[in-house]
Amino acid sequence: MRVSRGERLANYAILIAFAVFALYPVLTIVVAALGPDDAAGGQVGGGVLGLHPENFAKAWQDGHFGSYLRTSVVVSATVVVISVTLSILSGFAFGTMRFPGSTVLFYVFLLGIMMPSEAVVVPLYFDLRTLGLTDTLWAVVLPQVAQSVAFGTFWMRAYFRTSSRSLVEAARLDGASTRRILWSVLVPLARPAIVTLTVLVFMWTWNEFLIPLVMVISESLRTAPLGLAFFQGQYTQGFTLLAAGACIVATPVVLLYLFLQRHFIAGMLEGAVRE
Amino acid sequence: MSTQQVARARRTSTSPARARTRSAGPPGEPRRIAYLYLLPAFLVYAAFLLYPLGRAVQISLYDWDGNTLATWAGLDNYAEVVTDPALRAAFGHALVLVFFYAVLPLVVGLGLASILNRARVRGLPFFRTVIFLPQVVAMVVIGVAWRRLYAPDGSVNDLLRAVGLDSLARGWLGDYTAALPAVGFIGTWFEIGLVTVLLLAGMGRIPGELYEAARLDGAGPVREFFAVTLPSVRGEIAVALTLTVIAALRTFDLVYITTRGGPGQSTSVPSFEVYNRAFQQGRVGSAAAVAVVLTLIIFVISFGITRVAEREGA
């Protein structure tokens, strides 16, 4: 499409303005985290080329962000592995097999995509407390597995439905068992869909706040966002270490996003489009 | 590649397995084995989402402090959602947030996306990466960043003073009238990228002939937008509204980090009331009722917007 030079220039101006708007709050934190520690006198200068990467080491140690990050890694990895595996199994059933009740069951799963954590966190807390399970990793992991499985079932079903009906039939006629059809034929082909599901579940779990907030008491079980929230409440001497902590919390997902942004964008947009 | 997969499956399949699947009949027939594949996912889902949802409904019918014996309350907790000024205010605040999370980003996103769609400028992929970035940053981190920007000596006030609007400068999150719009604006910032990228994808699928036809009819950019662009992205608009409205209604992390519902009650929202009542005030029944009402509203909106989009698209 042909547009005038003036319009093109105006477009670039708008583009840059919105890019700056989107980045500015994020950059504020990065800049503050690399600046002189405002709680420790805060002289300008010094550091490495005027930057102060030692703030991150301080936040990691004194702010316990190292420990929070470890918990988050364990929680996210567990949720991702369990929920992606279960979603592949259930998506396979919905996507390639016909059985009585499949429609009703699928709508029941769809309900879970829309169900907010707020709806279930209250009864979950009190029931898990009765079972003595609060303040354990399982109390943080299992509710999130349930949420991810609801979406994952929907996501993998959509993939298995569109993919290769003839392939499944060919394999079946060749005598491949159902299990082999799934793991040797369909799953290798579904790798892009599985990667998308994996990064989405990882992001949601990593960034989740309400469930760990409610379920966890011990400091050693705090996930990264939870640790940051508590740090913000307790550490009022300055902003530098808080900013460094915020950077540490955000970095894993942001890095993954920079490498796999197609998967993030496609998943978050297509995942929302119901059939 | 696909034929290789089949070949590998063929090589490794054993004859007993062949006999078994043969007897199971042609593909597509009802298979009981499907239930086996569903079972693990369904068990976790039922135990940790469905059952708690049912329990939430049950708890909402009782007066319960979380420790001592609960007493039957019937629908009192639901009546309270309508009559309690604090809860009514919370739902009212959620409506204000809907404007900031959904309406404002949609208007901005429509403008931005149609401008970018008209003139394919360079650097569009980079722009998309940047503007979508807020979506992947933890809300807690976003809250920490914006608290800084809204501080009395923060960037927002610096900007206002730089353009001569000193009188507007204030401690935004501590101000009774400014706090809610200030929190809402964070939502606008957060959702603009999602909406814009979604609309850009939709506009990219509009056939170029439609625009050429419009131009031959002498349509300018504005007519072109209303006659061609807007009707073509109706589906994307519905998706964008569903996502952003639900995000607005579910706001919790942001309020918890930036204001804790304050000053006073001026930024309390339903999700925050659920948390507050259940875990701070010991009014678990009331919290459950708020949660159930919120969930129902979200279900209705999800189904409603999708249905409207389907009917109009058909």
Key descriptive features of the protein:
heterodimer; A: 275 residues; mainly alpha; MetI-like fold; globular; B: 314 residues; two-stranded antiparallel sheet; 2 strands; MetI-like (chain A); Carbohydrate ABC transporter membrane protein 2, CUT1 family (chain A); transmembrane helix (chain A); transport (chain A)
SSE order of chain A in H/E notation? HHHHHHHHHHHHH
Looking across the biggest beta sheet of chain B, what order are the strands in? 1-2
Number of domains of chain B: 1
CATH architecture of chain B: Orthogonal Bundle
Uncertain segments of chain B are 1-26
Tell me the β content of chain B. under 5%
CATH superfamily of chain B: MetI-like
Q: Which class of chain B in CATH terms?
A: Mainly Alpha
Question: Under CATH, the topology of chain B is which?
Answer: MetI-like fold
Characterize the overall form of chain B: globular
Task: State the helical fraction of chain B.
Answer: over 70%
Q: Total number of helical segments of chain B? A: 15
CATH superfamily of one domain in chain A: MetI-like
User: Alpha-carbon distance between the termini of chain A?
Assistant: 32 Å
Mean pLDDT of chain A: 87
Based on CA atoms alone, the radius of gyration of chain A comes out at 23 Å
Overall geometry of chain A comes to globular
In total, the number of strands of chain A is: 0
Please outline the major beta sheet of chain B.
2 strands, antiparallel
Instruction: Show the largest interface.
Output: A-B, 108 and 110 residues
The CATH class of one domain in chain A? Mainly Alpha
Organism (chain B): Pedococcus cremeus
Subcellular location (chain B): Cell membrane
Membrane topology (chain B): Multi-pass membrane protein
InterPro entries (chain B): ABC_transporter_permease, MetI-like, MetI-like_sf
How would you characterize this protein structure?
- The complex is a heterodimer of chains A (275) and B (314).
- Chain A contains 13 helices and no strands.
- Chain A has 275 residues and is mainly α.
- Chain B is globular and about 75 Å long.
- Chain B is built from 15 helices and 2 strands.
- Classes of the chains: A mainly alpha (275), B mainly alpha (314).
- The interface between A and B is large, with 108 and 110 residues.
